[in-house]
Design brief:
three-stranded antiparallel β-sheet, single chain, 3 domains, 319 residues, 36% helix, Polyamine Oxidase, Chain A, domain 2, FAD/NAD(P)-binding domain
Length: 319
């Protein structure tokens, strides 16, 4: 546990060892985080996890109860939460999309952005086709920096953003869902860092069937062979007993997200702030996990978007 409340770690590794102690660090936190981030932990910044007031110091009484097998709630916001009965987390976005459409918004899809220009009237021209007074960005910061880089000045800054891609392997099974949700695997010889029983969140109509996803991170720039990753993942799921009989497999599906996890390098704040300042100078609002380059989950993204909306309403009201 942390030495005192005034102690401040210098790196992510410092935070792990100083906050949780050598045993928890060596047995779980260091191998797991090396596996998911695939970077030296002493080369990662700490502010994304160590912000005074953001995370409580470990409660000794709660830790002892947990170690003894006594029920312990932990973080209440993670112990109890709502999840859509149908459609998964995508249903939240679908409902918002439907509302936007009903409010009269026009959606342009299947259009890859290749050019963003500022017009003489101050408006934005996107791909020379769409003119807009305001621009809210959610694509990754290095991508929009490149789109705006008419004189080749942003390339060096864009190259400093680091990230991991993520390969997701989905498996449907002819077997019941165990009483589990997300399982975290620190062992370096197991390909994936986590597998999640999605059928625990959305029970299938047939209780004798189940489905899960396994996640594998890949560092920026490395070549990804989805077929090889899927085969290795299926083998390891069998090795650890998650798949007991290969005849239980109904089907598998693998997909790749180029941008999976932003990496908090030691110069993350400087690089991010430089990028955000460039966008601000061009009157571009940038939000989201990749639009702000923060390791945010859905709740934080919703909050950030709400804050942007409130500030924009205030700005228009005051003008």
């Amino acid at each position: 546990m942390a030495k005192n409340k005034d102690w401040k770690p210098e790196t992510f590794l410092d935070w792990i060892t100083g906050f949780f102690g050598d045993y928890m660090a060596d047995e779980y936190l260091i191998p797991y985080n090396k596996k998911i981030w695939k970077r030296p932990l002493e080369k990662m910044a700490v502010d994304w996890v160590f912000t005074p007031g953001r995370l409580p110091f470990p409660d000794l009484e709660a830790m002892i109860k947990s170690a003894a097998g006594i029920p312990n709630i932990g973080y209440e916001e993670q112990a109890h939460f709502y999840y859509p009965k149908r459609g998964g987390i995508q249903s939240l976005y679908n409902s918002l999309f439907d509302k936007v459409i009903s409010d009269g918004a026009e959606i342009v899809d299947n259009e890859r952005i290749t050019n963003i220009d500022r017009l003489s009237n101050g408006n934005f021209s996107i791909n020379g086709k769409i003119e807009a007074r305001n621009l809210v960005n959610t694509i990754p910061l290095p991508e929009i920096l490149s789109l705006m880089d008419k004189q080749g000045q942003n390339g060096n800054l864009a190259s400093k953003f680091d990230y991991n891609s993520v390969v997701i392997v989905g498996v449907a099974l002819n077997s019941k869902t165990p009483e589990q949700i997300a399982i975290y695997i620190p062992h370096p010889n197991i390909t994936f860092h986590r597998y999640t029983w999605m059928s625990s969140l959305i029970p299938p109509s047939d209780s004798n069937k189940s489905n899960l996803i396994a996640e594998i991170t890949v560092p920026k720039g490395e070549t990804i062979d989805p077929n090889r990753v899927e085969l290795e993942t299926m083998k390891k799921l069998a090795d650890i007993g998650v798949i007991e009989d290969e005849n239980d497999i109904i089907f598998t599906k693998t997909w790749v997200n180029k941008y999976g996890y932003p990496i908090y390098t030691l110069d993350h704040n400087y690089v991010r702030n430089e990028a955000m300042n460039i966008l601000k100078e061009n009157n571009i609002i940038s939000v989201g996990r990749w639009g702000s380059w923060h390791y945010w989950n859905t709740d934080m993204i919703y909050r950030a978007v709400s804050d942007v909306e409130r500030l924009e309403v205030d700005r228009r009201w005051n003008h």
